[in-house]
Amino acid sequence: MLILSAKIRKDFGKKTKSLRNKDKIPAVVYGPGVKNLSLEVGYEEFEEVFKETGESSLVSLEIEGEKKKRPVLIHEVQKNPVTDRFIHIDFYQASLKEEVEATVPLVFEGVSPVVKEFGGTLVKDIAEVEVKALPQNLPHEIKVNVEGLKTFEDRISIKDLIVSKEVKILKEPKEVVVSVLPPEKVEEELEKPIEEKVEEVEKVERKKEKEGEEEAGMPAEKQEEEKKEETKEKSK
Fold it and tell me: The domain that contains 25 carries what CATH number?
């Protein structure tokens, strides 16, 4: 496990901004049977650790003043929507004897022969999966090799993903992860919605034009009579 240093946080409220200005990130650690504890961690150190572990690998949290390191998961991170910088971290101190659920990203590797030789388009239907395992067995990522996609009929499904026997993927085994579309199919998919929308718009416009023409060509007296008839029908 990678080690991440942390200190007990003493700045709260408005003072939190000054903490971030010092390249520190406010954080909290919690878990079953664990008292919530407010922390602060160095920005650059956390950034490096997060690149390696993501949200599905254990981190050894070394808190100043504590003799034992805490095994934690980076449960959630918050980022500034403008700068994309980390502004808060939730650490989850999990029991190493109980399974937890986590989201694991898929990493696609290799080149599909049907893409390279026949101009197909690789379609990634799933980018990440939910898994269940003991914290120490959670994978950081799951690799998907697409070199086996040799024809347009080939598929890689959930059941084809390679994980250790200690890890359970929480998705239907038959669900498609990645496939390849022929060039003409891609063009059809791109053009189809546009054509449908154009046809719908044209139908609506033709209908409005027809109604407008009928109404425009109708004498004012006739229009008034029809409105009265409609009112009578509704009152019945």
Answer: 2.40.240.10
